[in-house]
Amino acid sequence: MKIALVVPGGVDRSGEYRVIPALLALIRRLAAAHDVHVFALSQEASPGAWTLEGAQVHNIGRGLTRPRAVRAILREHRAAPFHVVHSIWSGAPGTVAVTAARLLALPSLIHVAGVELVALPDIACGGRLRWRGRAREYINLRGASMITAASAAMVQSLAALGRRAVRVPLGVDLETWPSRPPPRRDGAGPARLIQVANLNAVKDQKTLLRAAAVLAADGVDFRLDVVGEDTLGGSLQALSQEFGLAARVRFLGFRTRQQLRPLVEAADLLVVSSRHEAGPLAALEAAVAGVPTVGTCVGHLAEWSPVAALCVGIGDWKALAASIRRLIDDEELRLAVAQQAWRRAVAEDADYTAARFQALYAELTSGR
């Protein structure tokens, strides 16, 4: 089978920086059995091509990106026909996938993986924020032959828009991120918290820092590592100083996966403060490494809580602090939550994801 996979990016030629690990894991598994061509809309500013994880990457580059991407798919189809066009994310990748598939009379699949379905006007974010975005998503989601999403929460969001979706989590690659059953805390030293997310308004680290300030005021002994690229110009670091958290909170910036793994393994809890998540992958990776998650009720946390995660209302830093403290103070509960999360994340790993997508490709191409 020849597969056209349309993505916004996440497939840098380095294979390490500016990549999405779950996406690379999927590409590697698909390419082991199929002829996979990845059409990256804006991995690099200029057009280019390279091989990654056994697939051919076609970088479209800036300037009339969507029509040039459609033409690139049509051109590659003439060289040897595609069987299915698959978009990871809706938005611009979804538009490209649906348009190319219609022109070629092929089935198309859109995996909704980001903020396509939300509108957050106070931070000017979301695919449904403006009428153009709403119109684009209407066309994309009704033009696709099939829709998938990572979590039950996203499937429900699509159902509210009148679109049926299949739940397909983007699982963790156990070959590069090995499974570790949850270890018991030794009880010595401060509780170790970690967040793995770029610093931006959607991830809402202000809520994270406010929760940390509550914990500090209550006398809880903890340390918090925040791992991710800063897109907010140091404002969160300043807020941390204002809250008196400088001795407790470290902003570590970007870390490669090799650098990230020991930080996750050293943690007792992963904390998610996001206003929206389709996943997040960070919670799955933490679970595979034996670390449970406390956070806002988004994505996998919403579907796992209260058995395999603890979740609170979006923006509710007091409840977030209380849930963090609950797991810090109750080791048996922390271990029970971690064990349930570990079992779920390991069962739905990258192999599971690739198998699910290949089954859906077979369903689409069989005409059913």
| Average pLDDT number | 96
Name given to the CATH architecture of the largest domain: 3-Layer(aba) Sandwich
- The class by helix and strand makeup works out as alpha/beta
Low-confidence runs of at least 5 consecutive residues: none
Shape type:
globular
Largest sheet: 8 strands, mixed
Gyration radius (Cα, Å) is 21 Å
CATH level-4 homologous superfamily of the largest domain = Glycogen Phosphorylase B
Overall number of domains:
2
What does this structure look like?
The protein is an alpha/beta fold and 368 residues long. It has two domains: 2-171 and 349-365, 3-Layer(aba) Sandwich (Rossmann fold), CATH 3.40.50; 191-347, Glycogen Phosphorylase B (Rossmann fold), CATH 3.40.50. The protein is built from 13 helices and 14 strands. Strands 3-4-2-1-5-6-7-8 form an eight-stranded mixed beta sheet, with helices on both faces. It has a six-stranded parallel beta sheet with strand order 11-10-9-12-13-14, sandwiched between helices. Helix 11 packs across helix 12 (331-347). The radius of gyration is 21 Å and the shape is globular.
Q: Layout of helices and strands, plus pairs?
A:
Layout: E1 2-7, H1 21-31, E2 35-40, E3 48-52, E4 55-59, H2 65-79, E5 84-88, H3 91-104, E6 108-112, H4 131-143, E7 146-149, H5 152-160, E8 166-167, E9 191-196, H6 205-217, E10 222-227, H7 235-242, E11 249-253, H8 257-265, E12 269-272, H9 281-288, E13 293-296, H10 299-304, E14 310-312, H11 317-329, H12 331-347, H13 350-365
Parallel strand pairs: 1-2, 1-5, 2-4, 5-6, 6-7, 7-8, 9-10, 9-12, 10-11, 12-13, 13-14
Antiparallel strand pairs: 3-4
